[in-house]
Amino acid sequence: MSLAPRAVLVHRTTEYEELLARHGTHGQAAFFLSARGRSIEAVRERHERVRQALAEVAGAVPLSWRQTRVERADLDRFLFGPEDVVVVVGQDGLVANAAKYLTGQPVIGIDADPGRNAGVLVRHRAAQARRLLPYAAGAGAAVDELTMVEAVTDDAQRLLALNEIYVGPPGHQTARYTLGLDGGDAPAEPEPQASSGVLVGTGTGATGWLRSLWEQRSSSLVLPAPADARLAWFVREAWPSPTTGTTRVEGLLGAGHGLRLTVESDRLVAFGDGVESDALHLTWGQTIRLAAAEARLRLVG
């Protein structure tokens, strides 16, 4: 007998809850903020909107379904099932945080605080959950399949991300490596580089950190769209020297193409979507390849 669908509600601790955890009581948190010219009321109001949205979504789950909740910090320990419908209640970034742990489950993004989020990934309101949940579980649900980026090391470590993967120093040191392209008519000789790191991202990521770099350098690249299979990549602050070059600082990666970095520093890290706590640690001589992943995020439109 097949299992009934399970609604997995993904959320994160609010700023107000973090303040209470740090200061103990509402009054102490309010005093801490007021001493710095800020009010706790706006923070608490945002907390109430998020909690109300979460409660409304939980109440919309069909009675015949199972349901559970998972906080962002516990995503790496949570086991998603094939029958799950994942409902992310919060910000766009929370969808990206969950994406790397999924294997094709449909995702519904619920904007818990309309007006504060761009709404690229959290496209719906809590009031729509009652209609969207059974729709997402059906065979004919329309979803946008969003491209993800994958990093694989030469010792088979693997990292997935929805927006972007950063490879570079863990602090403010200079990253040293050789950078090369593979696939198609890519140049054969890699280029030694010294920089602040390399960013490889998707069309979804092109609305965030990638776009910041793209605008900063007035790039002529046409950034990919979220469902586009291409990736964009940028080298941050490449430094020219007698032994390091700056001829390859940006580009696009099509199907079958990848970017290879061979580490020439004592330690570099690779992490996705800004989650530094879940990083690959790279040492001298290791190679890491970045390319479009086979896995895609199935986001309910």
Helices and strands, with pairings:
Blueprint: E1 6-11, H1 15-23, H2 26-34, H3 41-60, E2 66-71, E3 84-90, H4 92-99, E4 106-111, H5 129-137, E5 143-153, E6 158-161, E7 164-168, E8 175-182, E9 191-195, E10 198-201, H6 209-216, E11 231-235, E12 250-253, E13 258-263, E14 267-272, E15 280-283, E16 287-300
Parallel strand pairs: 1-2, 1-3, 3-4, 4-16
Antiparallel strand pairs: 5-6, 5-16, 7-10, 7-14, 8-9, 8-13, 10-11, 11-12, 13-16, 14-15
Helix pairs in contact: 1-2, 3-5
What does this structure look like?
The chain has 301 residues and is of the alpha+beta class. It has 6 helices and 16 strands. The strands form 2 sheets. Strands 1, 2, 3, 4, 5, 6, 8, 9, 13 and 16 form a 10-stranded mixed β-sheet that branches. Helix 1 crosses helix 2 and helix 3 packs across helix 5. The longest helix is centred in the first third of the chain and has 20 residues. The chain is globular. The mean pLDDT is 93.
Salient structural properties:
16 strands; 6-stranded antiparallel sheet; single chain; 301 residues
- Helicity level: 10-25%
Strand content: 25-35%
How many β-strand stretches? 16
Mean pLDDT: 93
Write down the overall geometry.
globular
Structure at a glance:
The protein is α+β, with helices and mostly antiparallel strands. It has six helices and 16 strands. The strands form two sheets. Strands 1, 2, 3, 4, 5, 6, 8, 9, 13 and 16 form a ten-stranded mixed beta sheet that branches. The chain has a six-stranded antiparallel beta sheet with strand order 12-11-10-7-14-15, covered by helices on one side.
